[in-house]
Structure formats: structure tokens, C-alpha cells
Amino acid sequence: MSDLPARFRRCRMRPNDYAVERTRLNRRVYHSALAEWLMGPGSLTLGLAGSVVGGVLYPVSLWLSLPALLVWSPVMLLEPWQMPMRMPSDMDRLDPSTQRQVTGKLLGFLPVTAMRTVMLKAAGILYMGYLRGRDAGRELWLSLDDMTRHILMFGTTGAGKTEALLGYVLGQLGYGKGLIYSDGKAQNDVAAAIVSLARRFGREDDVRMMNFITGGRSRAQELLEDNKSRG
């Protein structure tokens, strides 16, 4: 280090020097694996079965298991149920994923600002598939507000990105909307799949394809029109 110029020695960072505060870099969220397991339906079922077996073998254990179950069961059963993303609109109930706090007047009329929690009704209209891994099989839905925002999708070759996008196409056609699909790889099977999906909904006449490589021209149509120009 002694061979470095003086300006580099002055700019050298120490081990505990950071351009951003450590509290901003590492924002830990409280998470308890035990509490999460206890709030699952499987753990409650196991607890009920254990209390029954324990009550048969050792009746005195009911003095401990019954009070615990009287607290455990309502806490778990009354916990707000929430889907991984949004709730579909046909559920016709409040969606906990839209929960937010807004300011308002105390008791609705007093001139005192108070915070209150509000939730919107279920508005999921686009089915994206189902959850994989933990809690596999739970449905994934997006609302119209979610669909009008950007979605970044990561996946290796063969992960199913194109099939997922075709699922979005199916969702748009399912409730009578339109869409623009731009395929940078220009796969022929993707265009054929979109036409096939549109035909299932009687929308094949609404499909318009444009090839940006040929400027949107159709070589087959030019042959029919006997167009011999090269322009």
C-alpha cells in the first residue's frame, strides 16, 4: 500500500466504511418459523390429535391441552385469510392484500386526524397460474391495476417464459380485451398459438400480424398480386 500515490491512499475505504448506512442496506423483517408453523392448519390438526391421544392415555393432561386449544383454535381460524397475490373478483369479499392505512376524522366527524385501515374488494381478473414450492397449488391472480404496470420476468432457456406470456394472452381474450404481442425472436409457433387462442374465442378476424423484418408486407400477397418490384 505504501507504493500507491497519495491521492489513492487518501481515498482508500476502511473495513467499516460504507457509502450508505448499514441500516438501509440490511432491513431485517421479523419472521418466526415457529409462529408460522403454529398458524398452519396442519399444526392445529396435529395439536387436536395429540390432545385426544394424551387425554385418553393421561386424562390429567386435558387440564393443559384444553385451555391451550381454546386459545390456539380461535387465533388461527380468525386470522385474515390471504391469497399469494390478489383474490379473484368472483369471491365478492374484501382482499387483505389491498390493506392500507389512510387518514380520516376521528369517529367520522370529530376534527381530529386518525389513521384507519381500509381494504378494497377482490378485483382479480387475470389468472396467472398457480404457486410452486411451498403452499403449491394456490392460485395467482392479478387485478386490472396490477396489469397496467410493468412486469419483469426472469427465467433460463426452457423455463416457460413464452408459455407464461401466452397464458396472459388467454387471460386477456377470456374477458373480451385486446392486446399487442411483440416477439423479438419472431417464433412462428408463437404467432400460430395466438391465432389458435383467438379462434377459440371467435376473435380470429381481430388478429393482425406485422413482420418488422419485412416492413409488414406479405410475400404471399405480393405473389398473388404479381408484384415484381424489389422496393
Unreliable spans are none
Q: Give the overall shape.
A: elongated
Overall mean pLDDT stands at: 80
Distance separating the two termini? 66 Å
Query: What is Rg?
Result: 29 Å
Please bin the fraction of helical residues: 25-40%
Order of strands across the main sheet: 1-2
Number of domains: 2
Which structural class should the secondary elements be placed in? alpha+beta
Beta content = 5-15%
Number of discrete helical segments: 9
The biggest beta sheet, please?
A: 2 strands, antiparallel
In N-to-C order, the SSE pattern is HHHHHEEEEHHHH
Number of strands: 4
Protein name: TrbC protein
InterPro entries: P-loop_NTPase
Give a quick rundown of the structure:
Helices cover 37% and strands 12% of the residues.
